[in-house]
């Protein structure tokens, strides 16, 4: 990745929009980002990291906390970063969550996070890859760069306090970083695939063995040999029981048949008695049925007259409705005539209003002509007042600026005096840091020993806790194993019970094929399912895994304590004859010198503050002088404007009559005249509209009244004709009068009910008579049977058959269980042998690939260790140069203690002592040089491998202040050497020596209004 430009708006200490044109720094620049503490040097790295991943370099602040306090409310906080990657250009924009003014109304609203990503083609055209979604933009950047935010901060942007993380990272952490950089996921995927495959085979074997044991437990045996012996001994007993069961079954069938025949004869006698009783009941209902038949006949005669009766009723109702409509039409005609008379009177009264309306319209036109002159007069008055007020404001501001200018000159003299005093105190404390370092070196070993002793005590307590946890997990594993065995036994017994439930008489058994089932299996309670069995087995496996983890943790803690004991012994021997009294004296001296150093830092901060304030005062003085000149010019301009406004006022007063010069008089006259015009216009229009509407309504009412009269006459004639037809039909019918007609009528439901009752009765009489005759013929010559005697005989035979059947079923069930168990055991044994043969190959490969043998080095870690060796060769070449031949970085070859991952640990070889020691023992400055060497070596090797991630840029934030002048010069030479190989190197520091040796700089100036960035090229 190569940065092209970075734009920060209201971000961090940058109040306005600041753009860093990285492309103007040259092809392969080595540049310095320089500025005082707090000016915003690290903010540049925060902005790059935030633009790419939405997070800052140190993770101390969220994106929403990066808004500049100096920024205007309507300025949006955003970062835009353009970069080149693999020959292609990209641009990304991010906006953090923030408060902004509402588009409408007062108050603020929450601006949500945004992110846009564009791809820039070689011809300069842009394609939008991500429109707004933040997570999608981050995911796209990770795919493009091949780095997560943590890896980006460790290999491309090294922020404050992060130098030693890559150097001191554990083997597993360094494995994650290197696997991403060198794209070795294939090896890791192979490890996981082999591990999963071997674990699956192991689980299948264990499952098969558990099934075998469960089958044997289910049949009450322990070995397969006992199973064969039990089958041979069972066969003679089964044959004898089957013969006894057949004899008992035959006797039972004969007794059942005799009882069935007797019950059938008994049912016939009962049916005969019931039919005789039913026939007697039908004879009692004959008179009731005759009355129903006569009622149906009268209803049929009345039904023939009903259409004429309904027609007469309808005609009477129509005549009555026509009379009502005729009366309503006459009333409406009279009301319309009266309304027409009233409308004519109103129209005559409105004729004189037309002349008055014309007069008011002419008056309104005259007043509207005065309106423009009144506006000009009001505008002239406002101009005059505005000019006079502005002149007074400018004069007041002029006096205020003059007073501020005098105050600034007095403050500058006071600041210069304080500056000279602070500089004198700083010179007195110049040697304090050197003396503090000498004493700190003497106390460091003692402090380290105390820390290690405390750590050993904490680890011993943790070891005791781990041992107790292991015992508890072992007990849990035993409980889970016992519960699993109980579930497996119940499951096997339940499977036999399920098969027994499906058995049917004279149908073959699915296990043994027999059609006889003398003793089917049973199971009390709920049957456990396959899922319950799997859950029990998974619980055992989970408990075993937790116990394994606890044991590994116990072993690891024990190894760490042993290693710490060795380090404590070595350090105790090195301390030698150091006495407690000497240490106390050194501590007192250290405290005194620490106070001196703190005072020195405070003085430096005061000096910097005074310099800043002095610069601000100079800038304010210049601003006030410029402002004073502007105010003088404004006074002259406002006086000229006041004279012009006074002349315009006199001209406007001459054109407008005096009666309308008062504010609001002319507007009120125009408004009143306009309202009178509208009132007269509405009155005339309303009178004319009312007359036309009344005339139309009267004509319509006359036509409606005539139509209603014609309808009434027609309805009356129809009613008279219907009355004559009804009277004639009633005279010739069997019904005497209209009352008899209404009495004879039946509803459709009642008619259907009576008719259905008569039909049902006639049908029941026929059916009962035929059935009675048939039943009497069937029972002729038969006597009532002895049912109780036959039932006692059947009960005796059934008991005998049940006893024989139970003996046979129990023996047959036992034989089926044993045969099925033998077949299942043989099949399971064959599968287990095949799986064990597979595990012999796959399990060995998995152990080797996952680092479970030998030196505990996995396949991926082995590949990465080779790559790490190449990185350390390049890193050691630079570290030897910067440490004047003393140090070089090596990969630790021996296996780590306990179950910790091995293969990627680092140590440093000290040429002065000829020994290797952990990298954590390096001092602050030495750690910086080692971390810088490792980062530069990593940059070289990653780009040397085909398919790796290209690291074209490296930003280094601080760390140079811990180096002596000679080491600083060597570090700069290493950076220049790296720059010559085609890298962009950015160094963030305020060390004065770097500013002198690196002419290409980004200087950051800070003030009360925020920071500004300036590109410097010497």
TrEMBL record:
Keywords: ATP-binding, Coiled coil, DNA recombination, DNA replication, Endonuclease, Exonuclease, Hydrolase, Nuclease, Nucleotide-binding. Pfam families: AAA_23 (PF13476), SbcC_Walker_B (PF13558). GO terms for biological process: DNA recombination; DNA replication; double-strand break repair. InterPro entries: P-loop_NTPase, Rad50/SbcC_AAA. It comes from the Bacteria. Residues 314-324 have a biased composition (Basic and acidic residues). The keyword Cell wall biogenesis/degradation does not apply. Heterodimer of SbcC and SbcD. Belongs to the SMC family. SbcC subfamily. This is Nuclease SbcCD subunit C. The lineage of its organism: Bacteria, Pseudomonadati, Pseudomonadota, Gammaproteobacteria, Chromatiales.
